[in-house]
TrEMBL record:
This is Phosphatidyl-N-methylethanolamine N-methyltransferase. It is an enzyme of class 2 (transferase). It is found in: Endoplasmic reticulum membrane; Mitochondrion membrane. Catalyzes the second two steps of the methylation pathway of phosphatidylcholine biosynthesis, the SAM-dependent methylation of phosphatidylmonomethylethanolamine (PMME) to phosphatidyldimethylethanolamine (PDME) and of PDME to phosphatidylcholine (PC). It catalyses: a 1,2-diacyl-sn-glycero-3-phospho-N-methylethanolamine + S-adenosyl-L-methionine = a 1,2-diacyl-sn-glycero-3-phospho-N,N-dimethylethanolamine + S-adenosyl-L-homocysteine + H(+); a 1,2-diacyl-sn-glycero-3-phospho-N,N-dimethylethanolamine + S-adenosyl-L-methionine = a 1,2-diacyl-sn-glycero-3-phosphocholine + S-adenosyl-L-homocysteine + H(+). S-adenosyl-L-methionine binds at residues 108-110, 190-191. GO terms for molecular function: phosphatidyl-N-methylethanolamine N-methyltransferase activity. PANTHER family: PHOSPHATIDYLETHANOLAMINE N-METHYLTRANSFERASE. Pfam families: PEMT.
Amino acid sequence: MSSKDFDSLLQQFLTLVDLNKTSLYISLLAITFNPTAWNIVARNEYRNKTITRLFRGNARYGTYFLAVLIFSFGILRDNLYHKAILEQPQYPILPKQYATIVPAVLFFLGQLFVITSTWALGITGTFLGDYFGILMDHRVEGFPFNVLRDPMYVGSTMCFAATALWYERPAGLLITLYVYIVYVIALRFEGPFTDMIYSEREKARKAQ
C-alpha cells in the first residue's frame, strides 16, 4: 500500500471516528476497568476474604455488596458509552429497510441472554459468589448456557453493537470490537480460576 493510499484510508477513517473526543477515551477506560477490577477484587476475596471480613464473616452479604458495585458501575459504563457515541459522526451503516429492525432484534437477543443467564445463576452465581465460597451444587446447563458458553458477555457485546447500529455511529462498532477483546481477555483469567475453585471443592469432598 502506498503512502497516498494509506493517507486516503486514514482520512476516511477520521470522517467516521472523531479521535479528538475525550468521551471516547473515557468510555474505553470504563469498559476496561469493569472486568479488570472485578477479577482483581474477586481473586483477592478468594485469597484474603477482605470483603467478607467487612461484613463480619457473612460471605453472602459480601457478595450482595459486590453485586451492587458491579451493577452500578455497569450502568455508569453504559451511560458513558451512550454519551461517547452520540458525540461521534453519524453515518448510515445498514440499508434503510434494516436500519431499525436489525439493531432492535440484536438488542432484544442480547438482553435475553443477559437476563436469562442472571436468572439461571442467581445473584451469587452471577456476581462472583464462588470467590466468596458460595458454590453452586451443579453446573447450569439450561438456556442460555446450552446455546452459549458465556451468554452474559456475548449478550452484553450484542447490546453494544445494537446501540451503535441504532444511532448509526461507526465509532460505536469500533468500541464494540474493543468490548469483545476485553471480554475475551477477562475470560482467559476468570474461566480457569473459577474452574480451579470448583476443582478444589471436589478434592475436598473426596478427601472427606
